[in-house]
Amino acid sequence: MYAIVETGGKQYRVSPGESFRVEKLPAERGEKITLDRVLLVADGEEVSFGAPVLEGAKVICTVTEQDRAKKVIAFRYHPKKNVRVKRGHRQYFSRLRVESIEL
Fold first, then answer.
1. Tens of pLDDT along 78-98?
2. What's the gap between Cα 51 and its chain centre?
3. Is 17 helix (H, G, I), strand (E, B) or coil?
4. Which of 2, 30, 40, 92 could crosslink 15 through cysteines, CB 3.0-4.6 Å?
């Protein structure tokens, strides 16, 4: 069984028991979160999909980690000029573990 959920403007394919990383969600570590923007649920032979979301479907997850990703370097320069700009950024993220998929 798997589902496709949307959160943070991105879509993720999730199955019960697996972990995945999403944009930061306002929740504490160990807290349960319900993702209700479920686009598709597949259970063996049966596939249900919404237009755009399935009514009444939800994915229940537990927040296992709140952290920051590796640093991304943004560097720009103009050749033959004395222009060099180096910036770094670490994006916040939440790691979720899927507990169950309800249809």
1. 999 999 999 999 999 999 999
2. 21
3. coil
4. 2
